[in-house]
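quick one, 84 residues, struct below
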Amino acid sequence: MVRIEGHPAKKLFFWIERADFVRQYQKIEGFWLPERDQTLVQVRLYGKKVLTIDHQNYVVNGAQHKEEPTPTHEGRGGAVVAAK
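---
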């Protein structure tokens, strides 16, 4: 999914006649992350107002791998004893 558009199902507030939103995504290092949120609102007596949020400067950190214990020798009953 690269783009979502819509408007709230319920009326938000008396002063807001209509609100529409658009969310765009971008793929960064295999992850889909928000690129831009834009909301257009029709306000009574004031007209149209637009709020735009640009998401940028993402840094994706590598997955932290848990260090697995190294088997050293077998104990009684065939169980593996591990050293940390």
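Residues 1-58 form one domain.
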